[in-house]
Amino acid sequence: MANIAVALLVLQLLQVAIGEHNIQDHTRSFEKKECDMYHGKWVYDNSYPLYDSSQCNFIEKEFACQRNGRPDRLYLKYRWQPSACNLPRFDGLDFLKKFRDKQIMFVGDSLSLNQWQSLTCMLHTATPHSEYKLQRIEGLSTFTFTTLYTRYGRVLTLDKVDDEKEWDGIDVLIFNTWHWWQHTGRKQPWDFIQEGKHRQKDMDRLVAYEKGLMTLARWVDTNVDPEKTKVFFQGVSPDHSSGSYWPGNNNGKNCKGETKPILAPGYPNRQHPEELVLEKVLHTMTKPVHLLNVTRLSQQRKDAHPSVYGSGGHKGMDCSHWCLAGLPDTWNQLLYAELISK
After folding, report:
1. From the candidates 179, 318, 320, 329, which is the catalytic residue?
2. Strands 172-175, 103-108: parallel, antiparallel or unpaired by DSSP?
3. pLDDT, greater one: 5 or 200
């Protein structure tokens, strides 16, 4: 498949900058037991956000809402509270210790970049005095312990995985897709969709999405050793470009000016069709995989998008990506809980 962005987190490089004596010996693990971490509610927590994004100048301008002039801060103060348990608070030093000499790779679209930048900032602010190096050489960006590599093609191949050699030997793989499958017109990054020898101009995007996911699933089942690599699929990241599904009469409304989550009981009352497709594909897999089931809890966060405070500020409307600090920090907190759970 084309249009895959790869973001790599290489933690052994950061170890050199931090120093052995600065990493505490945390031995705790999270007792997940029967708790559904993804069923709960958003609660106000004055101790949030988890970090000060102004300490991370490397955050892309599209996600830097405070830097771009967003005047409100209430959206930063919401914590995800599962109904049946408490999430461990994210501990950057503990994360670095547990995954020293490991590689964590995000494979997906710009939402993966969104989450990847959240995690790099969460780890960087945990070690604010450590040095880091940022390099950009053509299509390759390197941030001390991370590598970002992006390739775009004009033919979307549904039955072939590009750049799979980049994934070999990775300790944790986090796959995410759907965002780019929706694009049409000038934003569409392919001219044709191809499966086998059959090439066509377009097709039902949900069908194409399922075929692409099946290709990724077959690759995992064929190539991944679960003793060496832990595989996650991230749930669909919802946008809030239309309020037609929000409680109340919100036709034509988007995320602009929204400052609070949707706290209505029972919302959302429907699943994303794309999320149902993802869960269907995961149930076909023979290798153990884990679903980062962030869709439902993210649907409630109409307040957490850049809106007009992305792309350098007051240019366009972004109700797809998320401000940093912000919602992707919760995704990473859930990822952390999954990684350290027994």
Report:
1. 318
2. parallel
3. 200
Can 141 be counted among the known catalytic residues? no
pLDDT tens per residue, range 245-276 = 888 767 778 999 999 999 988 888 878 888 99
Measured from the Cβ of residue 52, the count of other Cβ atoms closer than 10 Å reads 12
Among the listed residues 91, 109, 321, 329, the single catalytic one is 321
Active site residue 321: yes
Query: 110 catalytic, yes or no?
Result: yes
Tens digits of residue pLDDT in 68-105: 999 999 999 999 999 988 999 999 888 888 887 777 77
Count, residues in the chain? 342
Catalytic residue among 110, 141, 242, 341: 110
